[in-house]
# Entry
Amino acid sequence: MKRFFALSRTTHGVLDLAMPGFVALLWLGEFPTIATIALSIFTAFAGYTAIYALNDLVGIAVDKEKFSGGINAGYSVEASDMRYPLAQKVLSYKEGLLWFIGWFIVAMIGSYFLNPVIMGILAAAAILEVIYVSLFKVTYFRTFVSGFVKSSGPIAAIYVVDKNPSLELVLLILAWVFMWEIGGQNVPADWNDTVEDKRVHAKTIPLQLGTQTAGIIVLLTLGLTVIISLFLPLASPLNLGWLYRLATALAGAFLLLKPGWDLYRQQTEGRMAAKLFDSASYYPMAQLVIITLFVLLG
# Structure
């Protein structure tokens, strides 16, 4: 099973589950029923497992070329020696495809019982993921596509707890996740892979615009992430005052802004970018812990 979980980057995927969990608690202001929580976690796990596997299935040819000279050290949240198992030929394409199809069907079934609207969100996420991978050698603007893909989970969480949510507040959540994904995940990941990406003439922000500009983009998007987080209480029925905003700002400063500034200041390739990626990966979990405490106190 290690090969399959490596395909779906399960360690990272489990951390990603915290983001829709946070959004659902924030939006509802209380814990859903146990049945809803259980079905939501299982469905979200299936969805993330399928979409991450889809990434490697679509990009297998490029991955083989990209890592022909060896696979880099990666990140602490997904540092398995079996990373990219399709490219390393430790997992066949047929096995990977069946793995994706199985989990995608499970996610679709779970989505139907939670709210059929989520089925459309999941299908859109899969299509966008294919587009994202396909643009690897075409344009660095594919980064924006990744923002929408990563936002699909938290947006789906809203529709679990609210059948008719406010569009303005949905867009607020989307903007927050979008900025976090670009500055804390996508650009740092590409920055960490610059040596490998050069082999295949990839079009990424660090390679096309340079690390100086990439560092500025990281700082701007992470700064916007922290600023937008201060307005997230608008989406909650809870009375989240200055204490909540202080807690969420401190989490952003420690997990996003500090490592983002270190990366910008040192302008190094590889490990410093991976350090930011790792730190930002724990940001959703920090937000989930914070909102859980306020829900319990409230």
Remarks:
- The first helix runs from residue 2 to 7.
